[in-house]
Amino acid sequence: GYEGRLRTGPERATAVSDARATLRECATGFQHAGLSLDVVSVGGTSTMRDWQGEGFVTEIQAGSYAFMEHDLDGLGLPFESAAWVRATVISMHGQRALVDAGRKIIGCEYGPPRAIGIDASVCSVSEEHCVLAGHAVKTLTRGQVIRLRPSQIRTTFNLHDSVWLKDGQGLYVSAPVAARGAST
Questions:
Q1: What is the pLDDT at residue 112?
Q2: pLDDT of residue 114
Q3: What are the Cα distances from residue 169, in Å, to 104, 134, 151, 173?
């Protein structure tokens, strides 16, 4: 079963409950038919807590937890954001700033990225640029590097040949994205 895209909203509890009932019914059907049921794989990062403690479940498909997407915030998960994209301010106009990061380098399927450490919001995204807006934009300077948190971490990784990882001593090392372009 998979209901990992259930994030928040009034229908979430009912949808998770329905998924649990359906999967339990399938598992019972397999057992009554004498079929082997060695693996019962469910959920995703957003629903992992909902499945913990279910005796018939053998695997929870939590994957995004390793980096976290901003629509997972507020679900009480014991993880924090661990990925961002660096962008450079290339133009300023009033309370708006243009940065050199767009859909070609940052996944936006679940909404625009979020600026990290700046009280500004991304108000538009094109293929190669994002526009930030807000009072704090006035404090930015052309050439300044900022960080953007992707809304869709999987496609963000798929757009890059390599990533920079920070080790325990605070040093950055480059690592290839081995599965880049391999999604089918």
A1: 96
A2: 94
A3: 31, 35, 28, 11
Q: Residue 30 corresponds to which tokens in the numbers above?
A: 């397999």
Percent residues over pLDDT 70 in the chain: 98
pLDDT higher than threshold 70 for residue 71: yes
Q: For residue 5, which amino acid is it?
A: R
5 closest CA partner among 58, 64, 67: 64
CA distance 121 to 134: 7
Q: Report the distance separating Cα 118 and Cα 138, nearest Å.
A: 11
For residue 29, give Cα distances in angstroms to 1, 19, 114, 135: 15, 15, 45, 59
Q: Among candidates 81, 22, 15, 93, which has minimal Cα distance to 50?
A: 15
Please give the average per-residue pLDDT across 111-117, as a whole number. 94
- 157 touches 144 (CB < 8 A): no
Residues 6+ apart with CB under 8 A from 153: 64, 67, 68, 69, 83, 107
